[in-house]
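Researcher: I'm comparing several assemblies side by side, and this is the next one on my list. It has 755 residues spread over two chains. Same procedure as the others: predict the full complex and return the structure.
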Amino acid sequence: MNQVSSIPPELVIPSGAEPLLTVEHLTMRFGGLIAIDDVSFAAGKGEITAIIGPNGAGKTTLFNCITGFYTPTVGRLTLRARGETFLLERMDGFRIAQKAHVARTFQNIRLFSEMSVLENLIVAQHNELMKASGYTVTGLFGLGGYRKKEREATDLASYWLDKVGLTRLADINAGNLPYGAQRRLEIARAMCIRPTILCLDEPAAGLNPTESHELNKLLNYIKEEHDIGLLLIEHDMSVVMEISDHVIVLDYGVKISDGTPLYVRSDPNVIRAYLGEEETEELPPEIVEDISKDYDPDSIDSDKGGV
Amino acid sequence: MNENNNRLRGIDITALLKESAIAALVALGLTIVMLGLRTVDTTTGLGITTRWPLVVLAVVSVFVGRLLFALRREWKAAGRPVQRDLKKAEHRAAIIVQRFSTIGGPIFIAFALALPLLPFADRYVVDVATYVLIYVMLGWGLNIVVGLAGLLDLGYVAFYAVGAYSYALFAFYFDLSFWVCLPLAGLCAAGFGVLLGFPVLRLRGDYLAIVTLGFGEIIRVILLNWYSFTNGPDGISGIPRPTFFGLELKRTAAEGEQTFHQFFNLDYSTMHRLIFLYYLILILALFTNFFTLRIRKMPIGRAWEALREDEIACRSLGINPTNTKLTAFALGAMFAGFAGSFFATRQAFISPESFTFIESAVILAIVVLGGMGSQVGVAIAAVLLIGGTELFRGLEEYRMLAFGGLMVAIMVWRPRGLLAHREPTIKLHSGKAPPEEVIKAVTQGGMK
């Protein structure tokens, strides 16, 4: 699959894309609980890498390690983007977003709900605006090109508002938006920090099929038009199978499968994790093939419900 | 009342009266024994006295209470139109309040500017107005910390004290003038703000409130006990008055200098100094206000508000929470320092007694009642609370009761403060709100 033979097998990206984020031997322990156990993988540039797994598999913990909310117990997180290399595990939480431009969204939406939609997007450009305002000193007196920078920030915000279809609602409070729009706004806000990699924690949770379809289009657009990688935690298999280039499966904090969606779907390890041990042993090969061959989102959804 | 005598707006009065009568009957049965009869020790043994008025009172209050309760219930259930009317009235009131918050500011400022020139402005009025303005300024300063950054600070008076003592001590030891000390006092207070800010960075909500409360007390106790430096409970007296561009506001000037009234060829009046102090605090307060309004539109101001809304989201956007919180603490403290040095120069005497916890509580009450983050609201609340307590001076010991009643009333009527409306700091559609049907179409149903 990969031309470079020196890459360890667990870090191989199926499409052969250049690695953007490399996670090596990541372990996260909370006291006696091992939430993530020696996980290694690489996420490629310009690709959507999905992380799936049953509940409690350690997906969100992995995200929190990457975005600096937890400091990993063991392991190395390397981000190579825009000609620079960042060792994320050594950086303070907020600096990962500030310097390495790692953006994320949250499983339970975290918007600034008492602030307007536009303000949410302007706050996301805080560091650039802070510099332009001379760390508030010159900005207070309207000097130093702050106005121009603020206009630029508004332009970037308008661009993303247009992309997520919230332009007309730019001046109302973010907390008053309906659920689906809040999810889209959170993605727009994350994009406003001009990310190198966008980490999305269950972006399709609670969306109806139409909204979910819109989301797929948006994520594909981001992937194609903006030179960034996307990391995606998702339960909705229709989203995962449709848009991801690379799937990593976690179970009980251990990586059990890694490859293209097609490969992962037919991996016996994955089927065992999702459907349970006993059935798999007695599962006739035709059925395994059936599950993997004709992919039907509804049936997979109901499978997931049974886990 | 309509054609049916027993019905009022569709409510069956007879049934309600009957219900109330039954409740009263039950109350009668209970109270005859429990309230009506009382055993007393008499010389001949145990006797019984009766207290029928109490029984009557209890029965009547149960009857009336039950009737009111039932009426309210019926109105809620059957009287939809009444409720809708109420909703409409509430909505209308909210709109008026919102409009007031935009036009109220200039009116307020114009009135404040003209106040000393008005016919009724005697010594007492100007003095009270100066006192109120100190609290307006403190409220605006605390509004940065509590209203914008969302950091609950119960020890704000400590910075006020630091400002006051900085001026008093600088003047005492180094003989510096008010105008030199004013910025120094602000800087000292800001320094203490950072000092307090560091240890409490990780704390939120209740925990932060407790630590700031402790900090306020520590400052006061230090001022009280460091006798050799601060003169302890005796306080510092003879604090110099500010000069008007070098002109003293006294009856006689020092050798080779002129006083204010000599320079302007006026007759000497003590009112000059009072009015001068009034305008001084007015300028300081307005400076605080304009600074806050301006900084709200700066990235740091937006970061404060974002931090108040969600600290975790802020970190995920690369905002440094440490610096953001510290600047909020420092700037809020700086304005308290300015106000403190004004307080010192106005009183000409300060002692730790002026900086007790109740001061912090009053300033916080002003911010909360005014509507967190609202400048006009804070000013109105300061006028109500500080001016109000002056007004209620005639009530003597019931003054605090009136004060508390006022606070409860405001909180019941507008739980988010007098003027809780927040205008976005930047708009895409420059004033034009999206058409209502658009908002409705997008937001209906999905509210979560």
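Model: For your comparison table: The interface with chain A takes residues 291, 294-295, 298-300, 302-303, 305-306, 308-310, 312-321, 327, 422, 424-429, 433-434, 438-439, 442-448 of chain B (CB under 8 Å).
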